[in-house]
Amino acid sequence: MDIFAFIEKLQKKPEPTRRKILLIAVISTMIIIISVWLTAARLDFQNKEIKNTVEPFDFIKEDIRDFYGIFKNFIK
Question: Which keywords describe this protein according to UniProt (predicted)?
């Protein structure tokens, strides 16, 4: 079937039917996109190795050092 003939046939359908077809097409497309995205993300996480583990308080220590440096420069 020619794409233009399909579009023309679709345009002749009542609006509620066209909306249902649109909804089905959008949901189907999003399911495909999300599944491809999740598959790619899962493969990416499987390929990465954790080289450096960061202690939970290391971030807090760095923030305190940064704040102290900013505060020290502000007082000068």
Answer: Membrane, Transmembrane, Transmembrane helix
| 17 close to 9: Cβ distance less than 8 angstroms | no
Domain count, the chain: 1
Q: What is the mean pLDDT of residues 61-74?
A: 77
Q: Whole-angstrom distance between the N-terminal and C-terminal Cα of the chain?
A: 77
| pTM, two decimal places | 0.52
In angstroms, the CA 41 to CA 35 distance is 10
Q: Work out the angle between the directed axes of helices 3-11 and 15-47 (0-180°, nearest 10).
A: 130
Q: How many CA atoms lie within 13 A of 61 on its CB side?
A: 5
| pLDDT at residue 71 is higher than 80 | no
